[in-house]
Amino acid sequence: MVFQYFISGIKSLMSSQQSAVLKLLTGSVFVLFLVCCERNANTAVKMDAKLPDFESAVLSEVEDEFDKVFYEEWAKGKPLKIQLNSPPKRFKEKQIFKQNDSDIKPLAASRLHPLINNWMGAKKPDEMVEVILSVEEYLTIPRFPEPDISKSRNDIRNLTALNRSNEIIRELKDKRRQYNEKLHQQLATLKAKIIEEFWLVPAVRISLPIASIERILSNKRISYIEPVQSSDYPPANANANDDVDDARALLQSDAYFNQDLTAGWIGLLDSGVHRTHELLSKPERIALWRDCTSGNSNCSGGNADDSCWNHGTSAAAIISGNNNQANAQRGVSGIMVDSWKVYPDSTDATGNCNGGLNTAATLRAFEQAVLWFDKIIVAEMQGSGDEYSSISKAADAAFDTGSAVIAANGNKGPGAGTVSVPAIAHRVIGVGAFDTQTANQYANQSRGPANDNRIKPDIQTPNNSETASTGCGFGSPCTPLSDTANRNFGGTSGAVPYAGAIAALARNWMRKVGQTDPGHVYARLIVSGQISFPFNNTSGAGPVRMPVNGYSWWGKVAVEDGEAIEIPINVSRATANNLDAAIWWPEKNKKWWQLSEKHNDIDLRIVSPVGVVNDSSLSISSVFERVRASGGVAAGIWKLRISGYSVGGSAQTVYYNATVRN
Predict the structure, then answer these.
(1) CATH number for region 244-528
(2) Which of the residues 67, 169, 382, 601 has an alpha carbon 20 to 30 A from that of 246?
(3) Of 495, 461, 485, 503, whose CA–CA distance to 313 is shortest?
(4) Model confidence over 436-448: pLDDT tens digits?
(5) pTM of the model
(6) Could you tell me if 351 and 299 are in contact, meaning their C-beta atoms sit under 8 angstroms apart?
(7) Domain 114-227, second-level architecture
(8) Beta strand 46-47 pairing with 78-85
(9) Domain edges within the chain
């Protein structure tokens, strides 16, 4: 009772004296007591007594523990229980040489964005331009605190988390500033001036003459130079068979939606959102509504509406649209969306939109999304460049802070090696597309491989579904914007909102037992695909169907070179369906001059109860593997064998997920 009065009093104080109370409580035993003792009652799943729970994650700044094997069971669209299983076993195994090891030849890094190359041939040497200059990372990006997603952003614990996040940011800014002071001195000799600094990535916005670019590249620490303002546009119905509910059925996402997994916030980096559209208002689906192109450094101010491209409105409605247009148009997740506008509203002489992706705005958007607890970030963009661009680095850094990044593969196909930024990045899920109604592959989907031969896309989700529209044509502004119009949303743009929404639902499901690493989300998405090894750069792990009605296991391990780890999979009764398993690992970026070095190669096998290897996934360049024991699955102890075929340096963290469907 005393504690209840204490909580009531604190909440009352917070309304009028937030900053003073927050300063008093940050780091205090009262906050720790609050985290430990105010329970979250939103769980209908039977859980083992030894399991961590929702509360164990709140305010945490550390990764999930290794070597815990989580088990879940579903029936009739509802989860029955979650428990901990026996830990993995480790042993050394003899490696068998892969015949095509020597065939993998990564491409050389250019360090220059394609548009910069064009400038150097077309502009006068003394013409001043604005670019983003990136250097090799010299800091370790820390994990940001986990919020309490069952509460509002103004709740005391989330204000405490926000305060701590700002402390981390101040520390990063101080270290960036010290480095940039030395960089400033070097740039001054080249008539270059720093205009803006970023803290999430080691990058600065500078103004300089074209002639200075070649001289800057003589510095080996410089990893990439790209324009501030690119020419990359967003990746761009009465049919009753192409509605959002049809795509939801393909994904099997409604079973997760129905478990009240709708808390938290999803960050959307796009062209802005028309938040008064009836699918996004009454009840409201947009939380933060910010313009990172013409707003300030915090993306406040400017015009956050979807005034030019008629793009972000559609994406937001797929992610989380309400049911004002009935169930057919309801979005996937029910989770609030934070809109971060990264495409400016500029137009050409004819009045058509010409504001391509703004690099500086995108870096600000990633920074703000991390700060404001967007643990799922949907990147609706098809930037030029590669995994060394500042946008790719920002996406990878967002992963390091604890956010999963889901990005459109792009619409620059069907040629090979056309995957876009940031889908090309190492710690990002790239999303391809197939038609909601016909299931046909989207012909112009960008394809991998990445420069280092990683498979892209990682997964595919539906596109060409009917959802919200501003009523304007793509790139043709009009007034007033419509609050009721719909349209068919195609390309990989129409697919990535589905992937982001199911990623958020999967994260909320695993968060019930305190698991918050974004790598768990990625492994869940890979195992939900329907294609096993060998993979290609058209479909990756294939079309996603979320695990429902059956059994699943997940966890994380650290594997060393030549080491095998076996996770026991106890199938308690025979089933007629497949046993699928997948792994994904967050390999660190190499420096641009190290591309020829081999990456960490991890293999995956399924071993039957009688000790026979049922299926193997042995790709060389990718950072995921997927296997399937097809057909009937016998009762007994199956095993997932994760093998460190080639691991350099310290042990590689690997996330795994397995499922048997009833």
Answers:
(1) 3.40.50.200
(2) 382
(3) 485
(4) 999 999 999 999 9
(5) 0.91
(6) no
(7) 2-Layer Sandwich (3.30)
(8) parallel
(9) 1-38, 114-227, 244-528
